Amino acid sequence: MSKKVVVLGEVREGALRNVSFEAIAAAKKISGGGEVVGVLLGDAVQSIAEEMIHYGADRVITVEHPHLKLYTSDAFSQAFMAVYEQEKPEAVVFGHTALGKDLSPKIASKLASGLISDVTAIEGEGDAAVFIRPIFSGKAFEKVKNKEGLLFITVRPNNIAPLEHDAGRTGDVAALSVDVTNLRTIISEVIRKSTDGVDLSEAKVVVAGGRGVKSAEGFEPLQELATLLGGAIGASRGACDADYCDYS
């Protein structure tokens, strides 16, 4: 049976994160030929909505509000619930990111829904879909199937390949007005530490070191190699604890 599946896209610095496209690919398998609806929440997301369609979404709903510029659980849950009440999907897909790991269980619990988190692969399609996820710190994998009812899943970045980009693909982009109010927390400013290079969570190449590097200076050649390869620098917990490399 075909299903309507909603995908929450994630935006960082005005652009869609790659995990958004991976989530669309997962949604396509879950839908079994049904409709895949992209959702974007933010203060200015209308201009990038068509990118979700180019990667496989059938249509996109945007919710724009000043309180959605920066993520807070209250604001995003209010906006997303408004979309859910309008669409009534059979399944919802998030990225297994800081945002997705915070928001998905909150919404799923409100709707008394099942949640399968950290999915790395999907076997089968539609009602026959089986979700594979790591357990015991990645030492084993389990296969999980949703028996019935509304399903929430989160997909681990860099595991499910996105569909091929099709710039000629078209679909409807609709704006939904939501009054985001009664927030317990409002973020007025975010001060980010200056960082260069590729986001570690989305890097295709990671150059990593540990205590064996022996010093902060020892990490400098690794950083140069990461830059040369267009990748990100990684480090073990021990190396970070020894101040060889920054935790971020």
Automatic annotation (TrEMBL):
One of its GO terms (molecular function) is flavin adenine dinucleotide binding. Residues 5-195 form the Electron transfer flavoprotein alpha/beta-subunit N-terminal domain. Transmembrane segments: none annotated. InterPro entries: DHS-like_NAD/FAD-binding_dom (IPR029035), ETF_a/b_N (IPR014730), ETF_a/FixB (IPR001308), ETF_alpha_N (IPR033947), ETF_asu_C (IPR014731), Rossmann-like_a/b/a_fold (IPR014729). It comes from the Bacteria. It holds the Pfam family ETF_alpha. One of its GO terms (biological process) is fatty acid beta-oxidation using acyl-CoA dehydrogenase. Belongs to the ETF alpha-subunit/FixB family. This is Electron transfer flavoprotein subunit alpha/FixB family protein. It comes from Sporosarcina psychrophila (Bacillus psychrophilus).
